[in-house]
């Protein structure tokens, strides 16, 4: 917690790292924000709408800053929540919308329309977007219990998003949620996550399906039905967040050098 509180993005013009959560409906994007918010509030919170439904409960683009306690200052990151991905085209989050979010064009509380992608205001889109407004790290949120059930269409959608993110040089991480539901051993004791051969095979499966290194797949358990915080749960969530901040710094370092080269 202390490391996260004291984190300073490597580029002085960026006060808070912007982390974008992308994933299928019900994978746990909003729950991850609620879980991180709960840890810093020292109590279970439910600020972002989360739960299980056939279609996305999140219909707007939301940017969630997190405070260090009720009266505390804002922490050095913003979690950006999006509508869930759906298999069929014309449903769920559109890839063109993701492109607009990555480049900092979409405002907070913009309501997604799956049939019509976002069209930037011509006056606004003519001005260059600052590095502060862009996305600095992309997190794919994947439910550990549904990896083997992932359809080819959804896998292809994720692959085309990854190609877009790669082309912009943005750092990427996979958050593998619901590890306790995937493995009875882990449900009994969250610390057994590190020795569970089943979780290890799931991490490898996510890695090969999404084409990301195993080291970029972070297993976590979000708070969903708990009434009190649990240390082991907090450790996994905070470790994942710390890694996101580190990856965002890698991107910012590169982006800053590219801007310097433009002016040289």
UniProtKB/TrEMBL annotation:
GO terms for molecular function: GTP binding. Residues 18-158 form the G domain. GO terms for biological process: immune response. Pfam families: MMR_HSR1. It comes from the Eukaryota. InterPro entries: GTP-bd. PANTHER family: INTERFERON-INDUCED PROTEIN 44, INTERFERON-INDUCED PROTEIN 44-LIKE ISOFORM X1-RELATED. This is Interferon-induced protein 44-like isoform X2. It comes from Cyprinus carpio. The gene is LOC122134420.
């Amino acid at each position: 917690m202390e490391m996260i509180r004291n984190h300073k993005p490597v580029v002085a013009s960026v006060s808070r790292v912007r982390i974008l959560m992308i994933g299928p409906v019900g994978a746990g994007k909003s729950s991850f924000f609620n879980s991180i918010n709960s840890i810093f509030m020292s109590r279970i919170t439910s600020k972002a709408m989360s739960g299980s439904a056939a279609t996305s409960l999140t219909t707007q683009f939301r940017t969630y800053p997190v405070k260090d306690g009720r009266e505390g200052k804002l922490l050095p990151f913003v979690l950006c929540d999006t509508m869930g991905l759906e298999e069929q085209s014309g449903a769920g989050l559109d890839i063109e919308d993701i492109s607009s979010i990555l480049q900092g064009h979409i405002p907070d509380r913009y309501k997604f329309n799956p049939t019509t992608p976002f069209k930037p205001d011509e006056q606004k889109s003519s001005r260059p977007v600052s590095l502060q407004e862009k996305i600095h790290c992309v997190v794919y949120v994947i439910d550990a219990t549904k990896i083997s059930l992932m359809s080819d269409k959804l896998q292809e959608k994720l692959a085309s998003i990854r190609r877009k993110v790669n082309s912009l040089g943005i750092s990427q991480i996979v958050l593998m949620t619901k590890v306790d539901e995937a493995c009875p051993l882990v449900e009994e004791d969250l610390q057994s996550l590190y020795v569970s051969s089943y979780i290890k095979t799931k991490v490898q499966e996510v890695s090969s399906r999404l084409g990301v290194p195993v080291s970029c797949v972070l297993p976590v358990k979000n708070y969903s039905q708990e009434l009190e915080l649990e240390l082991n749960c907090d450790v996994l969530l905070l470790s994942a967040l710390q890694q996101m901040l580190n990856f965002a710094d890698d991107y910012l370092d590169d982006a800053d050098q590219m801007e310097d080269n433009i002016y040289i």
